[in-house]
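Model: You mentioned two targets. I'll fold them one after the other.
Researcher: Yes, keep them separate.
Model: Target one:
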Amino acid sequence: MAVPLALAAFWWLAPHSEPTAAKAPADKAQTAAGVLVVDAKRAAQMGIRLTAATVAEEAPLVTIPAVIQPPANARVAVAATFPGVVTRTYVVEGDSVRQGQALATVASREVLTLGSDLTRAHARAGVAQSNAARLSQLSREGIIAPARADEARAIAAESNADVSEKARILRMVGGHGGSGSYTLTAPIAGRVTSAAIQTGNPVDGTTAPYVIDAANRYEVIGQLPERLVGQVRLGMTVHLPPDISGRIIAVGSTIDPATRSASLKAEIPAGPGVVAGRATSIVISGPAPAGAVSVPETAVTMIDGRSAVFVAAQGGYAVRPVTSGTASNGRIVLLSGVKPGEQVVTSGTSALKALAAAR
């Protein structure tokens, strides 16, 4: 009985080192690999979301100040064709219009006169056509000389041409001869940037009651720093906040001695905040370095004073130091540390950062 009790006491007092020694290498391996062990259930509780890193085709080079303006050939002044008085307006400054849309109605004595002339021209053309038909019949019967029939046909053709010309003028100005009014219409689709017109005001052919800027066509004019004149080329991409992109169409070759910069012009489409005359800033992008990837800005955090991201790994998430480039439109270019296709954490980084600090 004494021997079993002694063996039991020896076993109880002996240090249990083998299980501890077996566990230590596993924890040590996880720490060495930089992997934070997080299962799927805990990841959901931490609000972790993943996004694949994509190959970065472009990388932002510089942000410069710029001014938005319409292209030189995209601004159209709508002139009053005939003098008259405005009887009705349909649009105001800032409205978007489609091509051919009515802008205003103008009562004009000239249009009323043109309508009367058209009526008389129709009457003359009718008489001339009847006379030409009658003389042609007499010519065929040998009663009159063919020359008289030819002359009548020429007069009829001239009368028809007069009718067509007067009718064309009325159509061109949107005129209504019966009411003596015509309609100003939008020659292009776009936005009304000036509307110097009111009901009851007189207009004449020397004024332009409306100015329309073409839709979806704008330019930005920026000042490119001297150090980048040789790097920025035609066709490079420019970005405006929040998510508008365009292409560079001109880069100046003369340096302004006062600002030490050259002019730059880029085409951009219409979008939120794109208003002619507005001062803004644009981000110029060029070809990205080989191996660079693009990820959302929310993926990058600071750990121990260095930029890092959390990358999905077997059993959890690996802390990956990265070299960050410039950011634009909510995305940032990583020059090293992440490969294309790797899943990076874009939501829940704060919780993972706290977990990494606890280790």
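Model: Target two:
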Amino acid sequence: MDTSGFFSSFSGKALAIIIAVLVITGLAVPDTYLTLHTLWSKNNETYSHGYILLMFVIYVLVTDFRWQKFSPSFWPVPLALGAGLVWLAANAVQVMLLQTLVLPGVLWCALAAMVGIKNSLKTLVPILSLYLALPIMDVLIVPLQNLTTWVNTKLIHAVGITAFIDGYDIHMPYGVMRIAHGCAGLNYLLAGVCLGVFYAYLNLQKLSLQLRAVALIVLLSLVGNWVRVFLLILIGYESKMQSELVYEHGFFGWVIFAILAVFFFFYAKRLEKKDGEFTGSGDKPELKLNGKMIGALVATMVAFAALPVWWNQNTSQTNQDTVEVNLPSSLEALSVAKNDLARIGAKYEGHDFSKVFTGRDTDYRLTLAVASYFKQAQGKELIYYANQPAAGITGKVKITVDGKPVNAALTRRGQVVFWIYRIGDEVVTSELDGKLAQLKQIFSSPVASALILQVDCRGKCGDPEEVAGALTPQIKALYNTKVR
């Protein structure tokens, strides 16, 4: 490898192209990038290593010349189009995890368009390592939390600390310490795997030695977290829960990780001696840009960005002023009220439009609420865990009213609530069916609404089916209430 100067040790063209790909992708899917920024900018959290990992991946790609042999290919174009379609589907149902998972794939498609499929396979290690900074790794939290609790239970018994352990809670004479999700050690494990993977990739050639290096850092990361938690328990016990470390211990864990990392590097150096002569990153290639390469790269990026850009343009054209709620004859006796959703106990985060109607029907006071979304985003969506059709709902059930399924529930205020979801022209009752309806109408950008009928019978409501029997026409009318 040519090391005559700093600027000769990396490829400026590769760096410029990678940065351009990242920028173009960010412009196409800005909300997804914003989610990653929020995730990566939280200090001492699980994915706080995200920006460092991204910079190191870029560094590795631009200094490793083994893959930088321009051999333009249009094969990645349909793969990039598929990635755009996956992003669009994930955005339609607001599954942010899937939206982030396509991003490393888009970068790999761009590299493959530059250098061909064969050469791009040499970039898979750094590209796949980006998944170590994506929230897919959250699946490891509970198993690691359970393992940390088990190990520390054994250690507490071994040293004779007076404590009662109930699940994740450690009851000591001076207070309670909890092995929470943050104590699972996922952040240290991910940082360790990143360190081991890149060290093995850059310094070792034999697969067996690479696996040994990664296995060692995984073990050290796990042991380091167990030691960290146990030391905090000891400190809490001996200080009678007065030590500041009991409450602020993020940096403490990284100190332990750094100490154990030193042992890793000593062992890794021994592995290098057992390895064959390392070929390094190769000689700096002559990367001559040509029309075919530029065309393949542009076609790949356009293939990915086309659907997200179209989606953003299409949904931004919806005008709130044009929305109308058309009530069927069975609900025409209701009149528009000045109440908003909060006043009636309904909650739909970030809704774009709402309207409330009130009126009486014999012994019942009826409140009809409509909450609609024109453009949904993470946390601003119809199907969301924090949303509710009324306050204090208990005992949600699904009932059938004259052949029409509806959701029903009682409230602590003695109301009965009935509700359905309308996505475009399709009416559903379950959250899963609502997501699927949004997916099926992905290219029409339908208005998504919750239609809610609250029934107040002065605290004398029977079960939902009894009330539904008396208000069958009004409940069925939810299906014919149009939001356009």
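Researcher: Noted. Anything on target two?
Model: The two ends are 65 Å apart (CA to CA).
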